[in-house]
Amino acid sequence: MRVLSYRTLVPAALLSCLLAGCERAPLPAEIEAVSMDAVQRGDEAAERRLRAWADDGMPVAERELALLYRVRHQEDQARGLFLRAARKGDAEAAYRLGDLERERAQDGSTNGRAAQWYRQAAQQGHAKAALALALLLKNGTGVPVDKAAAAHWLGVAAQAGDAHAMFLLSNAYADGDGVAADPRRARDLLERAADHDYPAAIQQLALVKQTGDELTPKDPAEADQLLKEAAEHRRSNARRF
Prior knowledge:
The protein is elongated, with a radius of gyration of 21 Å. It has 14 helices and no strands. It is mostly helical. Helix 10 crosses helix 11 and helix 11 runs antiparallel to helix 12. The two termini are 19 Å apart. The chain folds into three domains: 88 residues; 97 residues, Tetratricopeptide repeat domain (Serine Threonine Protein Phosphatase 5, Tetratricopeptide repeat, Alpha Horseshoe); 44 residues.
């Protein structure tokens, strides 16, 4: 399925109006469309408009201008803008700020700040932030280990559709790691992650079907097909990156 960009979704006439400075408050998707022109095409008019919106204190514009600065490796300016936007409640800015703080903590000893910003974004249902926070808490990377809290945030990310989180939470329920062991819940999450084309989940489900268990009948033919699917998804992901 073809994924539409924000620029595709915003009509050309409206985008021209936005760049010209029409007197109306832009919607978040419209700001992001102008940002894409500034980042991807180096459009100077788009960048000027983005700066003007950021100067007006619009958090989405502050966040998008910060992303532009990150592309240009202007880390201090990017951090300042992410901070402004995050303090106004922008979840994506809080997530990005968490990433910046984690990158700065090279030895993982100061990830408390990263966790703080990830938590702010995760509390708004931001899937990637919830997953990042869960991994910090699960592994004790610069924060105290808290398996129960890690499982909670994996649940938030899984509910938001993150297949990696579904897979990790499946393992948590299978092992009783931070949650009460629940084989049926574990299998449901594993199947959901596989349905989202997550290679590790597809492979693990294939191994289950090779031998069968109390929840799944043995099916070598389907297991072989799943292993092929997992390999193909891994190759596809490798080509993309």
